[in-house]
Amino acid sequence: MPLSGRALTGLLAALVFVAVGSEPAAGFDDGGGTVSPFMLGAGSKSIAMGGASVAYWRDSYAVLWNPAGLYYIDKGEVNLFHTSFFDQSTAYSSVIVSYPFIDFGVISASAIQLSVGGIERRDEANIVIPGELSNRQTRYIISYANKIISGLSAGVSLKMDRYAQGEYLANGFGVDAGLGLRTSVHSSVVDEMIFGFSVENLVEPKINIVSEEVGDPSGIRAGMAVVKSISSKLDDRLAVAFDIDKFKLTDPHLHLGVEYALKGIFSVRGGWNGGVPTFGCGFSLRYFDVDYAYRSTDLGANHLFSFVYRFGSSRKEKIDAREKRKEALLARELEAKMSSYEKSFIKSSMGKARKSLEKGEYDRAAGYFRSVLMWSPDNVEAKEGLKTAEASLLVIKGDSLMKTGKYPDALFAYREAETKMKSPGISKRIVECERKLSESTDRKRITEEIFTHALDLYSEKKWDEALKGFDKVLEMDHSNELAAQYREKTLKRIEEEHGRLAADIKQLVSKNRFTQALELLRNRAERNPSDTTVARLMKYVSAEKAAFKQTESSKKPSVRQKKQLSESEKESLRANYEKGIEYFKGGSFSEAIKIWEPIWRSYPSFERVSEYLIKAYQYLGMEFYTQHKYDQALKTWRNILRVDPANEKALRYINRTKEEISKLEGMTSL
Question: Which residues are CB-neighbours of 484 under 8 A, at least 6 positions away?
Fold first, then answer.
C-alpha cells in the first residue's frame, strides 16, 4: 500500500535516528553495521563517480573522502551542495570554505546537515498531539592539509557532530586523517597515477542519545586513480578511479568511477557505488563549477546539485607574486649598494683629484679624473678638471721648451693646451713665444723646425695639429711651397678621414649600434673639440637613435620562449642566484661572477641575472683599472659585451683602457 508524504517523512526520521544508534540503518548501509547519515557523502563530482574519491580530488569535497586531497585546491573555494528526500521538508546540504596558503598548506571549514521536518508529535501512549518535531544532524569540520615531500600530502580533519531533535541536544567529537601521493608517469598509456589512503573516525565521535551512548564507526578507505589525455588537440582528460572501504561491523564496499573532461569546461561522469550505478555531469568556467549527480538509494532517487566558487589568486600566482616582491626588495637593496659603491668611488676619486691638482701633481690628477669619467661620463667637474690637468701638463712642457730655446715645439705645446683650457696665462705664453720666434735672427732655422714638427704630426696622422704647423710656417714664410703642398695634402686627408668616419658611423647606425657610434664620436670630439663634422655626425646619430626607439616602442614586443624549469630546478637556481647577490653585496665580485655566469649561460632570462652579471664584471674591471692592471680590466669588460653587445659603459671603458695602454706603450718605446 502506498505511503503518504507524512508517513514517509516519519519513516526517514526513524531511519536517521537509528543510523546513529546501534542497529543497522537500511537506508544507509547494506552491511548490517552501524553507520552515519553522513555516509551519504557530499559533492556531485564525487557522488557521480560512485564515491571513488579517496585518490581523485578536484575540489574541497576531498575533506569528506580523504583530507590529504585538500592540499591540491589551487584557489580559495566556496562549495555548496544540496539534495532533498521525498519532499522539501527533508534536506541534505553542505557548505565548505577552503583557502590555500603558499607555505602553510590549506585550511578548510565545513558544515554538513541532514534536516528532517514535519515529524508528528506523540505522547507516551503513542497518541498524536498538536505540533511538529524536527530532527537535525549537523557535522562541523575543520580540516588542514599540506605537502610532506614533493607529490606526497597529508591531511587531518577535526569533527564535531551535533544531534538535535526537539529540545534534545547531544554532541560528539572525532578525527579523520589521510595520505595522498601523486606521480607523473611518462607513458603512452598513463599520464598520472594517484594513490590515496584515509582513516575515517580515527577518533570516533560518540553521542549520548537519551540513555545510550552511540558512535560513528571507524573505517579505512584506500584507492587509486589514473589520468590520461586522449587527444592533445581536444585538450581532454580521462580519469578512472577505484576505491575500497571497510568500516566497523560492515562488509567492504567497492567504488568505481570514470570522468571524461573536455577543454576543462564540460565533464561527464559515471560510477558504481557498492552495486548501485551513478552518473552526472558538470560545467566549469573560470571561477565557477556547477555539477549534477544522480543516484538511487533505498530512500529513493536523488538528484544532487553542487556549486563551487573559486576566488583569489592561484597558488602559482601567489608564489610568483611573492618572488617578484622578494626580487624587487633584493633589487632595491642591490641598487642601493651599487649606487653607494659608485658614489663612494666617485667621491674618493674626485677628492684625490682635487688634492693632486692643488699640489700640482697634474699627471696623477688627470688619472683620477679619467677614473671618475669612466663611471660618470657627464660629470662636469671631472671633465673640466681633466682639461685643466692636461692643459697644465702641456704648459709645463711648453715652459721647459721655452727655457731651452725650442720655441717652435713650445708654441705647439701651448696651442694644444689652449684647445683644452682657455686662460690668460696660456694666451700670454703663446704671444710671448710668437714674439720670440719673430725676433729670432735665424728665422730660417725656426721655420724648418716648425715644418719638421708639422711633418712628424702629419706622419702620425694628427691632421689638425699638423695643419696648424703648416699654417705657422706659411705665416713666417709665404713663399714656402713645400709647406703649402703639405697643407693641401693635410686638408685632403682631413676630408678623407671625415668621409671614412661618416661611413663608419652610418654603418653602425644601420646595425642599430647607436651607443658604439656615439662613443666613437665622443672620443674624436675630445681630441678636437672644434671639429664641426664630428658635431654634425653626433646630431645625426642622436636623431636616428630617437627615431629607432620610437619605432620599436610602437611594435608589439616579441615574446621570448623561456626554457621550462621544474619547481625543484627553480628553487636550486634561486638559491645560487641569491648566494651570488650576497657575494656581490659584500664586494666579492669575482665570486658572484662564478655563480651567476653558469646561470646566465643556461637560463639568461632567469630573474635579473644578466643585469647583475654585467654589474659584477663592471665593478671587477674597475678594480683592475684602478690598480693599473689594464690588460685584466680590458679582458673583464669584454665579458660584458658577451651579455650585452651594445653596453655603453663597457664600450666606453674598453676605449679608455685602450688609450691608457697606447700611452704606456708609447712611453715604453721612448
Answer: 470, 474
CA nearest to 219, candidates 187, 197, 235: 197
Q: Give the end-to-end CA distance of the chain in Å, rounded to a whole number.
A: 127
Judged on CB neighbours under 10 Å (0-12, 13-18, 19+), 423 is middle
Instruction: Identify the CA nearest to 41 among candidates 253, 189, 187.
Output: 253
Strand partners, 295: 278, 302
Give pLDDT tens digits for 571-591.
788 889 889 988 988 889 999
pLDDT in tens, 592-641: 999 999 999 888 888 889 989 999 998 899 888 888 888 998 999 999 98
Contact 291, 305 (CB under 8 A): yes
Alpha carbon distance 499, 520 (integer Å): 14
* CA 205 to mean position of chain CA atoms: 48
Of 279-283, 316-320, 576-580, least confident by mean pLDDT is 316-320
How many whole angstroms separate alpha carbon 277 and alpha carbon 302?
A: 12
For the chain, list the domains and their CATH numbers: 5-312 (2.40.160.60), 313-439 (1.25.40), 569-670 (1.25.40)
Distance in angstroms (rounded) separating the CA atoms of residues 377 and 74: 52
User: Which one-letter DSSP state was computed for residue 86?
Assistant: S
C-alpha cell at 508: 653602425
If you write DSSP's letter for every residue of 503-567 in order, what string do you get? Answer: HHHHHHHHTT-HHHHHHHHHHHHHH-TT-HHHHHHHHHHHHHHHHHHHHHHHSPPPPPPPPP--H
Q: Is 29 helix (H, G, I), strand (E, B) or coil?
A: coil
